User: Fold this.
Amino acid sequence: MSIALVTGSAGLIGSETCRSLSAKGLEIVGIDNDMRAHFFGAEASTAPARLRLERELPGYRHEAVDIRDADAVNRIFKEFGAAIQVVVHTAAQPSHDWAARSPITDFGVNALGTLNLLEATRASCPEAVFIFTSTNKVYGDTPNRLPLVELEKRWEIAPEHPYYNGIDETMSIDQTKHSLFGASKVAADVLVQEYGRYFGMKTACFRGGCLTGPAHAGTELHGFLAYLMKCTVTGKPYRVFGYKGKQVRDNIHSHDLVNAFWEFFQNPRPGEVYNMGGSRHSNCSMIEAIEACEQISGRKLEWTYVEDNRIGDHIWWISGVRKFQSHFPGWKYQYNLHGILEEIHAACKG
Assistant:
């Protein structure tokens, strides 16, 4: 028996991971206590996704456990022991704004929860691969110091700049404003690295850009493309925060990210860090994203502009994925921005 233990198993990346690894022959143990509903309200609940996993995946076992509870986490790991071949840790509090409202909860989920999982892995299945969904927010607002140029619909960087094809892992995470969410993810990120480097465990941090897909329960505080398309389709008003609506994000489909997890699982390395997003292959500004949603849906979005940007938010972020591609040349994108939005639109139409 080979087990994949997936935290946040009913979320966007977690559920995609469960389905993918189940199809590849692993038995799935999912940990998810639907904290997303607590963070963002009933519309963001992962309960429907959990029911689909239980209904559709053979042998799927669900544990509604809070990862801050070390005893409960250890109980699960001890039960399965060395049968756990891979731990994919996607559970998180993912919002800048929410973290500022409740810093202790944010740090407990993101940092302490990650430490509990690392310790449980080290105690019960030290040979397992440990994959952590980190975030580009570990770089804080350092990307905002880049020499950006204002174009008609987006901020951009000069083609001759070293980061034109994407920001790589050499950018410092120090001396910058992260937001409290970014700080808690930095703590978790460094812990994952350290368990790889200090204890020799097979760990990796995937520092994601905008992770998206049709299974995303998007809300105003998290899930940019999914929430934007939902508002376009339903007529719900949308707010754009700061930077003239020209802020740039790269977007990666959950399917492409989980395929990257699989590549690492097949040939792991200790204490690795990878920036992972849509790169130059799949990116857009807010204005460009609104135009794309309107074009695909055939509807106009009702939106307003709020001058104040979110604290720690990026003006321009495009992930440099060259390091991962050099380590795993077999990995390729399956989705571009238009393909991602077409799928999200179909899901919104139901």
